[in-house]
C-alpha cells in the first residue's frame, strides 16, 4: 500500500533535476535531463551492488545491527565531503530563454 508521501513524490520535481533542467541551454535540455536520469540509475546500480556484497547467502547482513546503518551513513558523508570540493569549482551560468509564442495564439 502506498502512503501519501509516495503518491505525492511523483508530482514534485526534485531540486537536482530542476537545477539540471533550468541551467541547460534550450537546445540541450533533453540531453542534460537524460544525463541526470542516467546518473540516478548509476547510483541505484551502485547501491544494489554494494548491498549484494554485504548480504550473506541466507539473506542476513554481514553488518549486524546498527553497523549497516553506519556503513551507509559513512558513504553519504564521504559523498558530502566530495560534493564540497566539486561545488567550489562549479561556475553557474544563467541562460535567458524566451518563451515560444504559439502561432495560433498570436
Keywords:
about 110 residues
Structural overview:
It is a single chain. By secondary structure, the chain is an all-alpha fold. The chain has two domains: 10-53; 57-90. It has helices spanning 4-9, 15-22, 29-53, 66-88. Helix 2 (15-22) runs antiparallel to helix 3. The longest helix is centred in the middle third of the chain and has 25 residues, at 29-53. It is elongated and about 65 Å long. Mean pLDDT is 77; it is low at 1-13.
Question: What is the topological layout?
Answer:
Layout (H helix, E strand, L loop, with lengths): L3 H6 L5 H8 L6 H25 L12 H23 L18
Helix pairs in contact: 2-3
Helix % is 55-70%
Mean pLDDT: 77
Shape descriptor reads: elongated
Total of domains? 2
* Oligomeric description of these chains: single chain
**Number of beta strands:** 0
What percent strand?
under 5%
Work out the helix count: 4
Helices and strands, in order, run as: HHHH
In short:
With 106 residues, this protein is mainly α.
